[in-house]
Amino acid sequence: MTPAQSPKWQSVGRSGSRTKARSSGGRYSVNALYSMAAEQDTDVDDDLAKAQKRLRDLKNKISVQSKKNFVLERDVRYLDSRIGLLIQNRMASDEQREVERTFEEVDPTAGHYPDERRLAQYSNLFFLLQSEPRHIASLCRLVTLSEIDTLLQTVMFTLYGNQYDSREEHLLLTMFQSVLSTQFETATDFGSLIRTNTPVSRMMTNYTRRGPGKGYLKEALSECINSLIEHKDLDLEINPVKVYEQMISQVEEDDGSLPDHLPRGVTPEVAAENAEVQAIIAPRLALLMEIANSFLMAIIDCLDSVPYGIRWICKQIRSLARRKYPDATDFAICSLIGGFFFLRFVNPAIVTPHAHMLVEENPSKHPRRTLTLIAKMLQNLANKPTYAKEAFMMSLNPFVENNKTRINQFLNGLCEVGDFYDQLEIDQYMALSKKDLTINITLNELYNTHALLEQHIETLAPGDKQHLRILADELGPAPPQVPRKENISIELNLFSRWETAVQDMHTALMDTVSSSDMLYMEAKSILVQLIRSIPRAVDKRPYNLIAIAERAATTKDASLVRKGIKVREMLRELEEQRVIDSSDSYKLMQEEVAAELIHLGNLKEKVLAETTSLQAVYRTISDHNDYLRSQLEHYKAYLQNVRLTASSEKAAGSGVGVVTVGGNKAKPVKQTFLGPYRFTHSQLMQEGIIVDSKVPEHRRPNIYFNISSPSPSTFIIALHYKGREKPILELDLKLDDLLEKQKDNKPLLDLEYVQLNVPKVLNLLKKIFSKR
């Protein structure tokens, strides 16, 4: 199926075309559909139904918890970077309001809640986005790297948030196929496919971090990693420069000085040629390859546990690569698959096992370095190794050479999974028969997705008659993002004006199979429900179908009475049509009902086993949530102490200072407005703070700058002209934004008329305000 073609299920339920979309295997599809209905029947309350309900609830809890963790991880990363910058520069005495908002609780009574008409429009829009993944696929290709994380949160954890629902998962994978197909079509360099940091690669990485992926990583890697990190003092460093430095430090410590033949600061080549360094490294190489081999075997042995979706993506990469690059070798194509499977999925978990919930605490220094080296070895094995940047890794090349064949077999084995298009067609029928298709979404997710669609609507839906364009035009401009306190979560019911809900399976499928087939399937389905609902009926074999129908029709349960009367009439009609015969006690129907119940009995064992497995996943995700929350609490306490003590710190260069998390609370100090401090244009030019000026030479003597600090970490630079009361322009600066510019090597700050040097602005601000 090419990206331009609509999958056949997309027309299901549309007026005038519903039945034309059916494949020729009508009877098979009907059978499968009724089996699914029997497995998910909400009218039945037997042990299987109860087990399935517990499993559905557990899957939903995992999905909800995964989304919370995704948001918390993003907050922790943000605060890590911001606070790290502030501490490094020892300058801020408070965090700005933007950071404080990270800790504010959401107020469910507040918020810019959409009215009923607008909610209905959003319901239409998100039904369309979910059921026709090509729109989201196009949007993911159009957004910038700075926009992708917020969009991915909505896509991965909201739009397709039920990670264990086959329909949502299959729709999400369909979106991946479209995105990957376009990436392959537009790629100019085979080597950069999958590996470069693009919205597509970010999307694939986030997909692997969902619940099923975490379960595989725990099964495959947890034991290996935990065994390794127990050896806290095991140093397996093989970089000759680092080994040399360690060696001379030890010699100096033991002897008090260094001999002449061991100079400091040697080149990598000199360090590698040192005989003592070689003697230290040799046994380490052997042990590293042994450990890496144990990791590789653990990964390969768990092939069958790799989540279907991840294997299906591997399959698409192989298929697209073969079509786009017909001359590419199997090894080259496997390197692409490895680029996804190892670079985006397995190796991040090896390098940071604590962040992936594989260990209880961060590994110590030496095991952490060993894990990094193992990840590099696996990456070199999965890809064609290049040792230009780290020549010392060439010593581990025997590991690569010895395992080439094995890793290619494994990577090809990942691709050996079936497609899901027929299954998805059935999933779509089931979804259309539901009345409770919903997603939980925050207002900011709603409005952010709306804004991105509005921004790219000309590309996404250029035609006025396209459904997406119609909905976007009706919605109009996207509302702005709401404050964190007002960012409530709402339950959005999904439906569409262009979809006719399937009220029953007969309506959905009646034109594709004979009426007697439909009658037969429906009767069988009802009989299965009755046997599951009537106490001990399942134990009495062979099943007396008429007796079961009569028994149901005479109970005190109104639902069973209706079903009993209905199925009794169905059996009579089927006999009149000579499909079944009462003289042999409806033997054909008996056998199929018994087979269905055996299938459901086996299903119960699978449901219980899956529940047990997912309970462990849920506990792990919940533990990680607790850890992330504790991190945020530490940050909150830290920043609160900084705020309370900042204004009382008078010593030179005190800045942030050292604050004890959870220490005694100081009394709040009243914030004061500092400044303004005046500087002429000439002064700032002489200091090199003004890098470039558009102010005419003859006007520069009349220009001056006022610099003030209305609150800690916030500064205002105002450009004035003598004789005018109001400034020509004002620039509101946040300290950590300046620090981030400096960290990212962006040295210029544009004030429209002048450009300022960021590091020198920081020095000036420090000189002015650090002692005040």
Automatic annotation (TrEMBL):
Residues 1-25 are annotated as: Disordered. Gene3D superfamilies: GTPase Activation - p120gap, domain 1. Keywords: Coiled coil. CDD domains: RasGAP_GAPA. InterPro entries: RasGAP_C, RasGAP_CS, RasGAP_dom, Rho_GTPase_activation_prot. GO terms for molecular function: GTPase activator activity. PROSITE patterns: RAS_GTPASE_ACTIV_1, RAS_GTPASE_ACTIV_2. Residues 167-383 form the Ras-GAP domain. SUPFAM superfamilies: GTPase activation domain, GAP, RGC domain-like. Pfam families: RasGAP (PF00616), RasGAP_C (PF03836). One of its GO terms (cellular component) is cell cortex. The keyword Coiled coil applies. It comes from the Eukaryota. GO terms for biological process: negative regulation of Ras protein signal transduction. Residues 1-18 have a biased composition (Polar residues). Residues 41-68 form a coiled coil. PANTHER family: GTPASE-ACTIVATING PROTEIN, RAS GTPASE-ACTIVATING PROTEIN WITH IQ MOTIF. This is Glyceraldehyde-3-phosphate dehydrogenase 1. The lineage of its organism: Eukaryota, Fungi, Dikarya, Basidiomycota, Agaricomycotina. The gene is GAP1_1.
